[in-house]
Every structure is written in C-alpha cells, then in structure tokens.
C-alpha cells in the first residue's frame, strides 16, 4: 500500500498529492482540502501504541497534539500542524500545559495508554509497558535493565561498564504516576504556526514527571529555562530534582546506546558516574 492509498483508506477521502517528509513520513493533500501526515511503521504494534498515545495525551488543559484521523496495520494518519518558531511566550505556555498534562495521571507506573499494547516502541527500539506498584521497581526493570541487557548482548557495553550503570541507586520522591509523553526530546516538541508547542511522536506511559523534564534537557530545548519556570509555577518539583536529572536520562541514553552505540556509551557512563 502506498501512503496515498493508506490516507484514502483510513480517512475515506481520496488523496491528491503525496510529498515525503523524511524517513517513512509523508504529507498528503486530500480531495476535501485537508492536509494530513501519514506515517508507516514496520511493526503494527508501534502504530497502535502511537495512536493510543496521541489519544491519551489529548487533554484540554495539556499541550495540543495532532488529531488521529485513522490507523490500521502499518499506517497512521494524523492532522498536519503547520510549523512555526519557538518563542519565550510559547515556551512558558508549554511549561504550564505540560504540568497540567502530567497531573492528569496514569493508572500505574509503566501502564500503557488505554487499549495500548504492552510491547510498544520508542524511536527504533522496542519498549515494554507493564504496570508496576512502585516507580523504582518499574524504572529499574523496564527502563534500565531492559536496555542494559540489550546493550551488553549487542556488544555496545562491556560487563564492567554495565556494572557501573547497574549499581546506580534508583530513587525518586514518592509521587503518583504521571501521564508522560515518554519520548520528550526537543525534536518531539513541534513549535507551531499557531504560537503553541505541540506534542508529536509520543511513547506515552505512566511514569515520574521528572522523566519528561529530564529528557527535554538531554538534547537541549529552546527557552528551556522558561519552560521549567512556568512548570514550577503550576506544579513545583521536589527538592533535589536537578540532581536526579542524570538518573532519568539513563533511560533515553541507554535507548540510544542500543540503537546507535558510539558516543552515547560515554554519555551514559558519565550520567551513571554523576549519581550516588
């Protein structure tokens, strides 16, 4: 099936023109004048996980997300959101709305979105969503050990390097599960023409709210100081949250080790050494 055929089948509207946006993502003009984005995933579970993530994150008080127009098999169709630029005002609104989204909560740490699959994905890596009673047990099992084993098995980390990461103490303030975007690096914050920051490409699950904020910091985010200040005005973070940033960043760093290896190995070890 082509992207145009997928768009027509899942929206019920004929497709007129298809333009590649990079990778397996396409922009499609529909006959009714709408413009949609069509994505293809190799794994149908990844399609289901992303569709259910977008639906779960679509909270009125949270950051806006593209509407899901249809999904099935290897294909996901969403509303197109015109790109704009990051501004201090948009960053502050984003911070407030992200705090509101986190506060909507989740059934458990590690819980997938409603009707979402246990076996999901984050970028090009698999991701497992299983409910746990405590954040520490879940984060250690499904966000550190899960990728640590893969990194060792692939030969990206030595046994001694893995021991350094494994020895990290997994602790965070006792808070209820937050509703997380789950893959909130800067590339998944879409600064739109409407003056707002939209969330795209989520890997949503229940987790600790500090994880989303730590991932924003990992690769840099425009006006991050404004985002964090506005977030804190709505939902102050517990003391010592900055010291815990490397702990939360171990998850995405290990994902990058599994997928890309290379320099991410040293970044992962540096994060582990920064922790008690």
UniProtKB/TrEMBL annotation:
Keywords: Kinase, Transferase. Pfam families: Fructosamin_kin. Gene3D superfamilies: 1.20.1270.240, Phosphorylase Kinase, domain 1, Transferase(Phosphotransferase) domain 1. GO terms for molecular function: kinase activity. The keyword Kinase applies. It comes from the Bacteria. Belongs to the fructosamine kinase family. This is Fructosamine kinase family protein. It comes from Saccharothrix mutabilis subsp. mutabilis.
